[in-house]
Structure formats: structure tokens, C-alpha cells
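Comment thread on ticket #2218

A.B. wrote:
> Attaching the input chain for the structure job we discussed in standup.
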Amino acid sequence: MLVYKKLVSVCLFLAIAIALHAQKEIQPLKISTIYQAESFSLVANNQAASISVDSNEATVVHLAANYFINDVASVTGTKPIINNRNASVVIGTIGKSSFINKLIASKKINVDAIKRKWEAYMILILNEASKKTLFIIGSDDRGTAFGIFELSRKIGVHPFYWWADIVPEHKPELFVAGSLVQQSPAVQYRGIFLNDEDWGLQPWAAKKMDTDIKDIGPRTYEKIFELLLRLK
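C.D. wrote:
> Ran it. Output below, let me know if you need it in another format.
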């Protein structure tokens, strides 16, 4: 009986140790204004991490990256730049980003959790070339864009920031820790229905947005499509 109790105690100890180790290894994605040893510095000391986007990426990825640059600037007052040679933030789609493809081939990054899925993405931090690098990796074009906008949301930019005049809280510094794996959305085809636009959206767009055509036009639709992307 004593041996049995000891065996149970050892098993419980090992189970707790394994659970704590797993908890330490896999941490949820968090944004902080305080630096910690495991953090990636997105903005620190009035300097923003540079961003890399492969030229092979789809237009939607480049658009999302530019929105993210403006989002970081709106939160911190410091604007990141695109620098494909020595960037600390790497944005890319599986099969399109040459740098990410090399890391996958060399088994430095495991993308099995999102590979061959639609609109899935992962955000993680790795020590690459003797420095911490933040990766936003999508299973497809929209997946990559959604990963970018998820980070925008995490730093405090609301998807309705423009439509509802939501000014993000000012944060002079931003540090990223942990990781995130987001699977495909439960509903594949999603959208917004513009209801009663004749007395609501159309007169407003004619007076405030697309004044040249006095109707709902490209400037209005640009904001609608941005909202769709941000809502994922």
C-alpha cells in the first residue's frame, strides 16, 4: 500500500511538472508596455521594429501591412518602416514568402497547424540570426492579412476605429510575448449587408466621401473593405 501511494505521488508530481513545462513553453499572445526577458520589442525607446513583406505577396497582404504600420503609429506615435533586408517583423504566406519557405524547409518553423487550410494564421517569436524576430505567417493571402489585423487589434486598434471614431489608447512602447495559432473561421464566406443605404450611407457618402460622383463610390468602399478585413 505504501509503495502504491508513493507511485501515485510520483505520477502526480510528473503530471504537474509536465503541465507547468507545457504552460511555460506555450504562452498566449500578449501585448505589454513593460519589457520582459521573453518579449519582442515592437516599439521601444522611440524606435519601431522594421517590417519585411516579400514582393511575391498578394496585394491584400501589402495593404494590411501598410494599415498595420499606421496602426502602430496611431498607438505609439512611432512609425515602423518596410525594410526587406534586415527586418525584425517578418510577414509572409506559406508558399509565397521566400524567407519563410526557407525556414520551413530547414525545420526552424513548424507550420503544420495551419498548412493547407483557408484563412488560418500563426504569430510567433523566434531567435533568428542572433536576434528576436516576430513572424506573422498565413496559410493563404487572407490568412496572412488577418494575422496582421489581429496584431493591430491586440495593440489596441479597434476594427471600427474609423467608423465609430474610436481613438486607441496611447502607449509609448509595445512589447509582444507568447504566440498564437488561429485556425480557419467557422464560416468560410462572410460579409456585411449594407441595409437602407438610400437614406443612410448613400447621402453621407455623396456629401462626405465620394463628392465627385455624389454616390457610394471607391472612397467609401475602401473603408468598407478595410472594415471587412479587420473584422476577419
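A.B. wrote:
> Thanks. Noting for the ticket: The CA atoms of residues 104 and 110 lie 6 Å apart.
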